[in-house]
Specification:
By secondary structure, the protein is an alpha/beta fold. It has 14 helices and twelve strands. Helix content is about 40%, strand content about 15%.
Length: about 325
Amino acid sequence: MSREGRTTLRDVAAAAGVSVATCSYVLSGRADRTTPLPEPTRQRVQEAARRLGYKGNTAARSLRRQRSELIAIVYAPPVGPWLDQLTWECEDVAAAHGYSVIGVPVRRLDRAAQSLRVITRGHVDGAIFVGSLSDDLDLTAARRSTRALMAFSDTLRMPGVDVIRNNARSALAEATTYLIEAGRERIAFLSHSNAREDRYLGYVDALQRAGRAVDPDLVRVGAASREDAVLVVRDLLAGPNPPDAIVSESDRGGFAALQAAADRGVKVPDDLAVIGTGNTREATYSLPPLTSVGMHQLEFAEMVEALFARIDDPTLPARELLMPWVLNHRASA
């Protein structure tokens, strides 16, 4: 003990029989070593800290209650209005459990490790990964340092991680097939980026099942930005052989398509059918109302409660929660 009677980091290290550096690493909640520390070493340091009443920092203090009382929502901007609904419901459920919610944006994958330090250093008890992030990132460090992880993914399978399945690929295939069966001949796809994700693959699946080839001229990038999408759709409609239908990877791109069509005097849905993705509230009152692929109702309380169940008991078997996307029919298609 120091002369002031307060337990120091050196005291805890001596009691646990480890170096001060190792003691600091464990009590900071970090999990970024190439070779993870043996679990008995971690437990020995944590037990020594509890026994001696060490109060060095927030992470160390949380050892006594085994909680940080924070959960994180990890997302890649831009995200549609449905993220607002998820955040609101997370906040309500979290408040009932005595927790707070923080947002962790990951705008660039090459900086993801820095963005995720709040998770990999153990500063939150649980985290929800939104969109395709869980498919693009290695969640091993986050899983090791966090009591509960949940991810939106149609492909991820990881021990101890709860997964929400939307079946996005099959839902986008259903939407494209609907347009094909309605007699649409030139169906364009408006994507977020050049990445070939499940939404685009669903579009391809439907074309292939109908014996159609993908026309590269009809696959355009622009759905992530409403401004970009308006320009892209204007360019498509100004061509010598314009599309008679558009499937957008977001409702944002769908609204832009409606605007671009109105600008050029193209009638929706007579001359151009438009389908978005997300089923946002705005889709119900756009002009015309936007047909959209997404959850029929945006309700997330059950999945957030599942996250808190895992925070309370991290040994629970991993769960798959099915929240399927469907084609919500409105006047634009």
